[in-house]
Queue: 2 jobs
Job 1
Amino acid sequence: MRHLARWIAIVYLALLVVWPVSLVFWHTFGDGLAPVFATFADPLVLHAFRLTAVATAWSVVLNVLFGVTISILLVRHEFPGKRILNVLVDIPLSVSPVVVGLALVLVYSQDTGIFGKPLAALGVHVLFATPAIVLATTFVALPLVIREIVPVLHEVGTDQEQAARSLGASGPQTFWRITIPAIRWGLLYGVVLSLARSIGEFGAVKVVSGNVIGRTQTATLVVEQFYYEFDKERAFAIASALALVAIAAIVAVGVLRSRAAIKEANS
Amino acid sequence: MTVAQLRNARRFLGGRRALPRTTLRRGSGISLGVAVLWLSLLVLIPLAAVVATAANGGWAGVVTTLSNPQTLAAIRLTLAQAAGVTVVNVVMGTLIAWVLVRDEFPGKRVVEIVIDVPFALPTIVAGLVLLGLYGPRSPLGFDVSNTRSAVFLAFAFVTLPFVVRAVQPVLEELDPEIEQAARSLGASEAQNLVRVVLPSLVPAIAAGAALSFARAVSEYGSLVLISGNLALRTEVTSVRILTYIENGQVAQASVVATVLLLVAFVVIGTLDFLQRKVTRRG
């Protein structure tokens, strides 16, 4: 029975994940590396990757700042409305990317949006431009850092922080010298997961970016465009690059986790 | 002594509640303010605007949009396929989690990585990936593109990790002594599984199922390429909303989006309830 369960699991995963994913690499590298290099020499493709990198960088930085702040508040403090806040920060995980896009369009539209109108009067255009892409990407990756840090904060407790405070450390000193080192692994996983999620965002960005070729197109949007233009070679090349980044992120988290587990077992 | 203990002690001694309901000082109060402001600007006000726009058209607007045959078909298809995929995930996810915890074999660490691939892979890449094996050029001769099976397949791909990752830690923490006791009292392997192991996994399985259902209902990127988005046949709710947006029918888009938001809130509420139940037990 044990062997049967093992083989059912392996066959299911092979058919659903392993075989299909390896086919993409096969399609990409089957004809040698020349078409892949040609794809990445295209200025349109390079521009799309640059935009993805910008949006991802903003998303990770904003979500680390917000995530660390809110996690410490949720774990270390008591205040009215804490339970509601705890539920609210998880919302982005369950909302459709298209709905995320629609929500941002409604609020940041230049003509009718309650934020978009005054911003447009100041000359700031959010929608169909980089700011909207950053907002959409940040929205979808919002809970990932929090989800990784909150359990770690619960686990490490407050003993060390209290000891530091009683020895005369200031609030910021305690934060940088005690709290941050204690949560550094959780924070790192959170960063890697946010990175992967931000690079891959598609639906929300499609709605808010306007999908303008060469201007507001991210790497994932270029994959779709090339596919619809029957330019499958280039679609596969970009998809493979994105898949490699995603798989590298999971492997990195996996290796770090098992290292951390071994260290913990030895100490 | 923690703040909570202090407060309980005061209450026990019959004194007036000396500690305020908040432990925020000025610095942390300001950071809470900034964090909530950011959450409002990015998430809460935009989502509220969706609901407000939907409500703007009144009840009549809601009924007209939701009784549109194409919209109705899209919602029905999404809910049905999401439910079907969730059932598959409950069975396969629990089985995979069981294999990962209780079985030892070479390559187990590779399986661990494979489980997370759908979570990290960009959704549009996932669509392309599935087209390779289950599209027109399928080496298996098994083409599901532009059919309802394609929707099911895409949902199954993106929701694979949820039940596995919910069940796995609970199964790891399960006390082996209880199972040993059951066995020593003459329970067979199957009886042990059904009467001892599975009941303690139920909250975790339910939590994973809720997450997997929510993810499937809201899915967009992985199925646009493979499902063909055929009206009344393979069009899902997210695609329907996008069509409304592209046609400038923001009110209709908001009504359908509100339906999806309601589903999301029900799922989040269920999860919150389940988590409380699990922690109370533990």
Job 2
Amino acid sequence: MQVVESDAQLVARCREGDDDAWRELVQRFSRYVYAIAVQAYRLTPSDAEDVFQEAFARAYENLHKLREDSAIRPWLAQLTRRLCLDSIRASSRVQPEESLEPQEVDDTIEKLDEALVVHEALATLPDNCREILDRFFARDESYRSIGDALDLPAGTIASRISRCLVKLRGELEGRKPASAESGG
Amino acid sequence: MHSHNEETLAELLRTLPAPPEAWVKAAQEIPLARRGLDDIVERARADLAFREALIADLEHALQDAGYDADQALADAVRERLSL
């Protein structure tokens, strides 16, 4: 099992000017910020890219304002949501606030929160499981492509995925809700 | 965390696809970019010829000085130096 640094520990290192910590923070939350822009707000790729870069730029500039280091995820979510609304407002001119926010946004972000917890649990699995699950589900790679990349017979990929999902489930069931909040 | 069967886990793994690698790399390089910005601003304040080159053609002056002059950096230099 991999030991994964908590969100609070990571934020603390970022505040000390540790570039490696910043790179890790971006890596950890990049899928989440991206998903808020393209799934919750359905931004175009171009607008989503602008929001993505601006969200991390503002996070970097304002990290010292974060009162609770472990609250980085909801803080980043809120920051991204505001930027998405700005983007929609800019592209559709002035409209009432109510019409800018897609109706299902809260439900979508709740699901993204849950998915992020699953990804955090995935990060604690052994390399072979992490790689195979990420390639198959998140990167949508074929058995053949995964087999080629990991030097595994394509015929064994399905059973390996199944075993790794069981491990992932076990990791999640062993977690307390508080650990899910802190990312570690 | 809810209890999940393997199907639900699979669905949640699919929910967070990776963004383009170039986006992630650019965001990861923010601290470096910021340091470059500080260097440019400091040099422009100390070196009149460099400042004049920036005023004349900011993007080319940055490139000539060895900086990766993307739009964000150029905009930030303009703002910081009130150009």
